[in-house]
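This follows on from our talk about sequence and fold. Can you supply me with one protein entry, sequence and fold together? Could you add the entry underneath, on a fresh line?
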Amino acid sequence: MLDKVERTEAEWRELLSPEQYYVLRGKGTERPFQNEYDELFEPGVYYCAACDLELFESEAKFNSGCGWPAFYAAKAEDRVQLTADQSHGMQRVEVTCARCDSHLGHIFNDAPTTPTGQRYCINSVSLKFVPKE
């Protein structure tokens, strides 16, 4: 079980950039094809931008063409939480960080070329990439 990270909204606003706050705490979405990690395929690890929890490995990243970073699996099942999301008149599954409850993106079962068939569609601003040495 992961230790939860809890902060006040004022603390989150101080810690995160305005765009990060909009996505991570406000459940927003960054613009597709105009983000930092969509086309990054270097070896490394992706961490939660809000609490530094290790979320995804570059080996699970693939080019889905969706405009956001896509992964076929999380680092471990206990790193992310999946919740039904019926906002905006759609049926989706939201992906949040298991440690700080920050919004990361959504997961879809539409990736037939991946080992899991899943596509974790994740906002770049929700992530911090650390290259492997």
